[in-house]
Amino acid sequence: MGQYLSIDEVNLSISELYTVVTNKAAKGQKGAIVAGTKAETVINHLQKISSVKRNQVVEITLDMANSMKLIAEKSFPKAKQVTDRFTPTTILKMEVVIPLR
Q1: pLDDT tens digits, one per residue of 10-57
Q2: Are strands 16-23 and 4-13 parallel, antiparallel or unpaired?
């Protein structure tokens, strides 16, 4: 577990959703993959990691989903949360800016 993490949901197929926590320092090579995106399920899995390691996390980047925010708060209570606005910006660009051209 590193000091800088990212958490996001990944859709591998129509019915397969996973929550992925990656270590930025390890360039995504170390982390956790949890089946599903329900906050309670993901929190239960992440809390199996020692609280000492989880409390060493300084920053966690997450998308704007409320479930990701809750997971970050409960699993990494000392980490600063940074909201990733890439997806909303991309959607806005695709729906508004490109049709105007």
Answers
A1: 887 778 888 888 887 776 566 888 999 899 999 999 999 999 999 999
A2: antiparallel
